[in-house]
Amino acid sequence: MVQQVTSGIKISVETNFEGTFYKNYKVHFAFGYKVIIENQGKDSVQLNTRHWRILDALNNEEIIEGEGVIGKKPVLKPGESHTYNSGCLLTSPFGAMQGHYNMINLSKTNKFKVYIPSFKLSAPFALN
């Protein structure tokens, strides 16, 4: 599990390999990840948007941007957390993801970025 704290918001990410399958006559590698967002600060915050950069071992890059996370824009009071699960597909058995959430401090109405630590995606059968 990787973790990082930005502006009092702790992001923890845990990954797992889901399996391989064929799509459009190409093999794809499916990975799942669980993200825990913890408000360790003194003010309530809301997650508004996300930005992901996904890389695979073949140097393919995909940028994902959108509203909220899995259809939600969670509000976190001090001491609260939000957990969600998601996933991605790669065309190689190795890759990495990183990104950030755009959030707003509801008490001070200022916007800020919370960085998601870079984490590795790897199929266990491909490791020595």
UniProtKB/TrEMBL annotation:
Protein source organism: Winogradskyella endarachnes
InterPro entries: ApaG_domain, ApaG_sf
One of the GO biological process terms: error-free translesion synthesis
Protein name: Co2+/Mg2+ efflux protein ApaG
Lineage, top ranks: Bacteria, Pseudomonadati, Bacteroidota, Flavobacteriia, Flavobacteriales
Domain ApaG: 3-128
